[in-house]
Amino acid sequence: MRTVGVEEELLLVDPESGDPRAVAAAILAQAAHDDPGQDVFDEELFGQMLEFATHPQSDMAALSEEIVRCRKEAARHAGQFGCAVAALAASPLPVDPLLTVNERYAWLAERFGVGTRDQLVCGCHVHVAVESDEEGVAVLDRLRPWLPALVAISANSPFWQGSDTGYASYRTRVWERWPSAGPTELFVSPERYHRRVRDMMATGVILDEAMAYFDARLSAHCPTVEIRVADVCLCAQTAVLVATLTRALVETAARDWRAGRPPPDHSVSVLRLGAWQAARSGMDQDLLDPVTMRPRPAPEVLRALLEYTGDALTACGDAERAEQGLTELLRRGNGARQQRRLLERAGSLRGVVTECVRHTQG
């Protein structure tokens, strides 16, 4: 059974005002002091962000427990500095990002200017084990049209700098400002994949391999594919649903490859439109059908995802979990829908943030 690991980026906020606070360096120093061997928490581009990474898990119940535990540990560390953590993919309140002191981040800020300052956004990255680069590239080629469905499920960034953007996932629109981000052409082989990355690096526009910000890519550090499209999810169980469906997509794509079924040959232009549509409306309107690339009601596309990955979900023992998780999500709504409802009740974006702090650990 393929192992899965999840990386989540959390927003550090004042628990009373909801304003983002740049205390990540202090939190990480204290965490390292308390537990010198800890390998869970890490710095991110800005001081208002804290990242954690789970260990590889083959059982989704164990992954769920670890995500919840990591969120609570992050909250405990932040609490030592009068701070809280919120699983928000973008700050609803205006914020002046504070760049983390780091040579790499300084290069990004100098190279990309104001575009770097806009990147105070929090994502959820899912790593799924693959047997080889050959299998990994075959998976990447076959995942492409289904990735917007994961955006719709995870969408959790409707507000930006104090205003409603009209998007469910504005984070993904901000992230697309990096010149190396977004959907990719078919790679076909590991040789072509690695040559593409080398060619991008040779332009001098990006710093290194880690800046190949594809929607899905081969990990440079471990034998996994890394799917990078999801917002950090407000509720931990939504993150588990994203991880569950991602593993099933990887397994289904690998089976299709072994069976000799070719990947869908959708153009990058159309894939970009599918990603935009998912970011704009989330689960509330149409998505583009991954097969036809024509509009189809979002719940039907998400049910089609369950059907497409059904055999893999069953083989992993995840079919019931995925069915229940999706049914609950369609009833409750993704993070974007929940944030907008919170605004109606709380009457202010500050109230939204403080309520999301509670939801992050709920």
From TrEMBL:
Key word Ligase present: yes
UniProt keyword list: ATP-binding, Ligase, Nucleotide-binding
SUPFAM superfamilies with a match to the protein in the record: Glutamine synthetase/guanido kinase
Example GO molecular function: ATP binding
Top-level taxon of the source organism: Bacteria
Enzyme Commission no: 6.3.2.2
Physiological role: ATP-dependent carboxylate-amine ligase which exhibits weak glutamate--cysteine ligase activity.
UniProt-recorded name of the protein: Putative glutamate--cysteine ligase 2
Species for this entry: Streptomyces roseochromogenus subsp. oscitans DS 12.976
